[in-house]
Design brief:
It is a single chain. By secondary structure, the protein is mainly α. Helices cover about 70% and strands about 0% of the residues. The chain contains 5 helices and no strands. It has helices spanning about 1-10, 10-35, 50-70, 75-110, 130-145. The longest helix is centred in the middle third of the chain and has 38 residues, at about 75-110. The chain starts with a helix and ends in a 5-residue tail after the last helix.
């Protein structure tokens, strides 16, 4: 039972999670400003502005740097992890989304007549643009620095 208390008391983890939640909430606010309606789906969907994944991993790396030291092995590990996650969000998942868009278009054109297609459309918004990743990363670092007093 003490382990759960230790996890809950981990301030670096809490700040990183808070950064992720703030980024997801920002998506809701941006959606409201853009379309003038609440779309709560953006809170749980991948993609969009800003990247919550980037906010999470950069806040985590920054918090580790602040607590364990900027020259620590833990900070190096967290930084490499953050770079991989952000590269994946802007690279691999973005490319997969483009492929899904093309496949959906091919299926739409091929089955333009009245055919029964039992498969659901592929999700197209999987990744982020590089700008969305950068904004998420900046958000994560800023939140970690603001919350640095909690460490």
């Amino acid at each position: 039972m003490q382990e759960i208390g230790n996890i809950i008391d981990n301030r670096v983890l809490l700040v990183a999670t808070l950064a992720c939640l703030i980024a997801q909430s920002a998506k809701l606010a941006i959606e409201l400003a853009r379309n003038r309606k609440f779309n709560f789906r953006v809170m749980v969907e991948t993609g969009g502005m800003p990247s919550a994944h980037s906010a999470l991993v950069t806040a985590l790396a920054t918090g580790i740097g602040q607590t364990a030291g900027w020259n620590s092995t833990e900070f190096a590990l967290a930084t490499i992890f953050a770079v991989i996650v952000m590269y994946d969000a802007a690279g691999v998942r973005q490319a997969a989304g483009k492929q899904a868009r093309i496949l959906n278009q091919i299926v739409d054109e091929f089955f333009s007549e009245d055919h029964d297609l039992n498969e659901a459309r592929l999700k197209e918004l999987l990744g982020h643009t590089p700008f969305q990743v950068i904004v998420g990363a900046i958000l994560g670092v800023c939140i970690a620095y603001i919350a640095g007093q909690a460490y």
